[in-house]
Design goal:
single chain; 127 residues; mainly beta; 7-stranded mixed beta sheet; globular
Length: 127
């Protein structure tokens, strides 16, 4: 049974940093592209960042480029999202996702490309 378990969310003030982590189990982690999405209240789920199987390639939403960094540790089956200079508009539930990308790591910002999702972790940024 595949499980993706996010952690590291919380309530912080604007300008602070948080590091989210996602622990994967039940899958061959190194064969999956990984990503973070987020969903704010009343909004649709939004792509944040993605990383290829090896970690050699990353892709970011324009809204977080230069502010967030995605990384992975294939030995520990984890993917992380380092979030710096947080803003109130970053408030959302953050979800970890895993996708096989059988035909190659393309359009990693598309939710339909992902086979498995975590339950999410809440990030709240106060002004």
């Amino acid at each position: 049974q595949v499980q993706l378990v996010e952690s590291g969310g919380g309530l912080v003030q604007a300008g602070a940093s948080l590091r989210l982590s996602c622990a994967a189990s039940g899958l061959t982690f190194s064969t999956y592209g990984m990503a973070w999405f987020r969903q704010a209240p009343g909004e649709e789920r939004e792509f944040v960042a993605a990383i290829s199987r090896s970690g050699a390639s990353t892709y970011y939403a324009d809204s977080v480029k230069g502010q967030f960094t995605i990384s992975r540790d294939n030995a520990k089956n984890t993917v992380a999202l380092q979030m710096n200079s947080l803003k109130p508009e970053d408030t959302a539930v953050y979800y970890c996702a895993a996708g096989l990308f059988v035909a190659g790591w393309r359009t990693p910002d598309t939710p339909a490309r992902y086979n498995y999702w975590g339950q999410g972790t809440q990030v709240t940024v106060s002004s």
